[in-house]
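Action item from last week, closing it out:
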Amino acid sequence: MKKVDFKDVMPYKAPLHFDCATLKLQGLEETGASKFWMGVTHFLPGGGAEYAY
């Protein structure tokens, strides 16, 4: 894992999420990690995600 500064984190559109901010912290494009990726989601009041599984 590599350290990622918040100023360098880019938002992305997470499928089935609504009224939230999603940020991808680790992944192939961000840090070269190829076996996993990690993100953070901040849900606004009333926001959420649909269940997909």
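Closing note: The beta strands are 10-11, 17-26, 38-49.
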